[in-house]
Amino acid sequence: MRIVFAGTPEPAVVALEKLIASRHEVAAVITRPDARRGRGRSLHPSPVKALAEEHGIEVLTPTTLKAGTEDGDVLRARLAELSPEAIPVVAYGNLITEDLLDVPTHGWVNLHFSLLPAWRGAAPVQASIAAGDEETGGTTFRIDKGLDTGDILATVEESIQPTDTADDLLTRLAYSGADLLVRTMDGLEDGSITPQPQQGEATYAHKIATEDARIDWAAPADVIDRHIRAHTPGPGAWTLLGESRLKVGPVTAGPQFSEEHDSASNALRPGEVRVAKKDVLVGTGSSPVRLGQIQPPGKKMMNAADWGRGLSSKMTQDGMDEVIFS
């Protein structure tokens, strides 16, 4: 089957690789324009564009898909020439206008990293971890004018592990989802797939802003644990120490630390920091959590125990009785 692939970030690369290796013809790729990043603010291609160019595949980089714009009209003309039978989509990041949906015979087929209708929207992986879901997965569906509301073509399930960060889970889903997308293209080509309407109550995963990643130390320990893992590595869970913002890596939450610490450690107030010889505890709305890594302003992530020793010295020098995260 002749396809055009639409995608941009690293998780989409796995799907493109699988499609290139499949029996289907990847005639072209649609991706976001080169973006500036790094200290020099130089232009860099998207991961999808880089892979496509390695394989000599035509790359289209419109800034918008809207009709009546130069980029949008050029894209429409090129798609008409390419005549794709399907356009598989993985995290493309641009609005697909309604008039384009019927261009390919089998439509635009999105790979979404949840079991729809659960966690429609921009951040399904993060939302599933933060909510404490035990299962998630991937769904291929035909894009319509709604937000992730189209008919389901196929699904794959994935268990969420107790220590999964968003990066861990997304990496596994990128691979299982890529296989699912290839099977979906196979099924559309041979007619073995019958689209099914979504059933069940929908939940939504909005786009994550930096403010959303702030830690609420008054929440229970298990909620804080999931919140931090859901925002790791990006945008990164964070807290304030005075006016300084610190990023916080995954923590250890669980039973009281009574065997390793005195009763005062188990009675820490939310956000109260206690430095011991080998670790750093922080009070929550339930039992304390043990910090794993922490990133002070202007520095790299470091072991929390090493950071804690520096903090303990500063507390002694400054005559501080307590340290509170907020």
From TrEMBL:
Q: GO terms for molecular function, please?
A: methionyl-tRNA formyltransferase activity
* Annotated ranges, domain Formyl transferase C-terminal: 207-310
Which PANTHER family does the record match to this protein?
METHIONYL-TRNA FORMYLTRANSFERASE (PTHR11138), METHIONYL-TRNA FORMYLTRANSFERASE, MITOCHONDRIAL (PTHR11138:SF5)
| This protein's UniProt keywords | Protein biosynthesis, Transferase
Q: What is this protein called?
A: Methionyl-tRNA formyltransferase
Q: Where is the Formyl transferase N-terminal domain?
A: 1-184
The EC number(s) given in the record are 2.1.2.9
Instruction: Give me the reactions it catalyses.
Output: L-methionyl-tRNA(fMet) + (6R)-10-formyltetrahydrofolate = N-formyl-L-methionyl-tRNA(fMet) + (6S)-5,6,7,8-tetrahydrofolate + H(+)
Q: Which residues bind (6S)-5,6,7,8-tetrahydrofolate?
A: 114-117
Which Gene3D superfamilies does the record associate with it? 3.40.50.12230
Q: Would the keyword Ribonucleoprotein turn up in this protein's UniProt record?
A: no
UniProt function note: Attaches a formyl group to the free amino group of methionyl-tRNA(fMet). The formyl group appears to play a dual role in the initiator identity of N-formylmethionyl-tRNA by promoting its recognition by IF2 and preventing the misappropriation of this tRNA by the elongation apparatus.
Q: Which organism is it from?
A: Corynebacterium singulare
UniProt lists the family membership as follows:
Belongs to the Fmt family.
Recorded hits in Pfam families, A to Z, give: Formyl_trans_C, Formyl_trans_N
At the top level, the lineage of the source is: Bacteria
